[in-house]
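Each letter names a residue; structure tokens follow underneath. Both lines appear below:
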Amino acid sequence: QVQLVESGGGLVHTGGSLRLSCAASGRTFSTYAMGWFRQAPGKEREFVGAIDWSGGSTYYAESVKGRFTISRDNAKNTVYLQMNSLKPEDTAVYYCASTKLPIATMTLNSYDYWGQGTQVTVSS
């Protein structure tokens, strides 16, 4: 059974930064791509970014490109989401997800395991 545990969410002012972490267990972490998604109240879950098995390729939603950075430490079975220049519209519950694919994908249905989510609130 794969378990994903996010941490690092919180309340921050506009322009601030947060770093989310997602610790994984139960799957050979270094073999599979990982993704970050978010869901704001009343909205569908949306893709934020993804990273391939090696960390060599990353993909981002246009809305976060240039502000957010995904990285991973395969020795620690952990993936990170560094969020800079945060905006009120970034407010959401952020989820990490694991896919069986080695390549990064933005397709929600490609991910078969999800964390419980961590709240990020950006005040104006």
User: Anything to note?
Assistant: The chain has a mean pLDDT of 96. The chain has no helices and eleven strands. The CA atoms of residues 5 and 116 lie 7 Å apart.
